[in-house]
């Protein structure tokens, strides 16, 4: 058994969880299209279709990505090794248990439902939070306090999604928490990416950076704030992000594909915030949850593939490449965004078709990425280092 856990897959968190991200990214959206169209029925004890869709995209797919990222990033942040070996395998097992528990949630006793649907997140988020607090004196990023607050809040959001009467609050909170993660990630990655790729030092203004993160964290509570207050909060955040976007030289960034896609995701986040502010202000946005899917397709759907490409290669000591298939995968996500966001407004009578085609786009994107990158996750680093 000991030799099993010394397999490269169990040496660092991104390896198994990014494998699961490729899998769920390819399977969940088309499954939702089948459920949404009525061609596939969830088991009777499962959550309602909409609850299942939101829960699995945020806490199945989304937390496969975020969990793998956080368990790997701790090495650079606080200089300790993240979960590995048996404990990492346990985290993966709890992730799988949660997937099955969601499908049988209605038949579970309350205590079993509470345990089985929270064990994975409690274990992984708890490990990260305890590590950040325990080793805070050697933390490279003092603003990791935002994660110390946000990660436990994911547990609240998850449990709100599990009950119909609080579902709206749970989805808004989960989306808001992922916004926080992306805001922090953009701030930490785009300056070094630009320095390495374009030899350009980006303008950094500490008050602006802090205001953006603080507003993003406060916006997690948008569903319980008065609508006008929430709209003003999101609009202010969108404006500040836009100001920084242009300070950070997008004219240079878009000349390089690997950096340009990150800037495209940054712009997608800003667009989402503006649309969400309009929605809260009472402005009709059209067919479908336009503001929500602007975030999932134009921010998550573009940035996550780019980060999977970078980490799967960089952390296995392989040269960073955005191959033709990688570019095709991300381009396919752009086409999927058209089908999910614009096509329903132009031809609303074919809404089911557009949802289906958007799901197919996700499948193609993550299938292409998984086919090329998953083998790296299962093999040893090229430089001979263990992790």
* Overall number of domains: 1
- Biggest sheet: strands, sense, closure? none
Could you tell me the CATH topology label.
Answer: Cytochrome C Oxidase, Chain A
Instruction: Based on Cα principal axes, name the global outline.
Output: globular
Ends apart, CA distance between termini: 20 Å
- How much helix, percentage-wise, in residues? over 70%
In terms of per-residue confidence, which ranges show pLDDT below 50 for 5 or more consecutive residues? none
Highest CATH level, the class? Mainly Alpha
By CATH's scheme, which homologous superfamily applies?
A: Cytochrome c oxidase-like, subunit I domain
Q: Which second-level CATH architecture applies?
A: Up-down Bundle
Q: What is the structural class? A: mainly alpha
Radius of gyration computed on alpha carbons: 20 Å
Strand content: under 5%
The SSE string, one letter per element, is HHHHHHHHHHHHHH
């Amino acid at each position: 058994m000991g030799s099993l856990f010394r397999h490269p897959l169990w040496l660092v968190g991104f390896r198994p969880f990014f494998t699961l991200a490729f899998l769920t990214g390819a399977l969940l959206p088309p499954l939702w299209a089948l459920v949404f169209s009525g061609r596939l029925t969830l088991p009777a004890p499962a959550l309602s279709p909409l609850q299942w869709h939101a829960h699995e995209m945020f806490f199945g797919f989304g937390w496969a990505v975020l969990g793998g990222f956080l368990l790997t990033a701790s090495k650079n942040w606080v200089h300790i090794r993240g979960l590995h070996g048996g404990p990492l395998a346990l985290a993966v097992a709890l992730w799988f248990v949660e997937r099955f528990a969601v499908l049988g949630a209605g038949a579970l006793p309350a205590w079993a439902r509470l345990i089985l649907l929270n064990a994975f997140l409690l274990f992984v988020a708890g490990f990260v939070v305890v590590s950040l607090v325990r080793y805070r004196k050697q933390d490279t990023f003092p603003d990791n306090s935002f994660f110390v607050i946000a990660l436990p809040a994911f547990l609240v959001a998850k449990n709100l999604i599990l009950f119909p009467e609080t579902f709206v609050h749970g989805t808004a909170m989960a989306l808001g928490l992922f916004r926080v993660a992306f805001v922090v990630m953009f701030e930490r990655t785009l300056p070094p990416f630009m320095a390495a790729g374009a030899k350009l030092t980006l303008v950094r203004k500490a008050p602006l950076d802090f205001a953006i993160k603080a507003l993003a964290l406060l916006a997690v509570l948008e569903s319980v704030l008065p609508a006008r207050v929430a709209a003003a909060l999101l609009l202010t955040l969108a404006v500040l992000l836009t100001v920084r976007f242009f300070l950070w030289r997008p004219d240079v960034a878009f000349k390089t594909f690997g950096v340009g896609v990150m800037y495209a995701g940054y712009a997608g986040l800003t667009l989402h915030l503006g649309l969400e502010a309009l929605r809260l202000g009472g402005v009709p946005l059209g067919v479908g949850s336009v503001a929500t899917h602007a975030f999932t397709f134009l921010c998550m759907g573009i940035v996550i593939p780019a980060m999977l490409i970078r980490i799967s290669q960089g952390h296995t000591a392989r040269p960073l490449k955005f191959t033709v298939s990688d570019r095709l995968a991300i381009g396919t996500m752009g086409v999927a965004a058209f089908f999910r966001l614009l096509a329903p407004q132009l031809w609303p009578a074919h809404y089911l078709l557009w949802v289906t085609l958007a799901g197919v786009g996700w499948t193609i994107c993550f299938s292409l990425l998984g086919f090329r990158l998953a083998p790296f996750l299962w093999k040893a680093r090229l430089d001979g280092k263990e992790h």
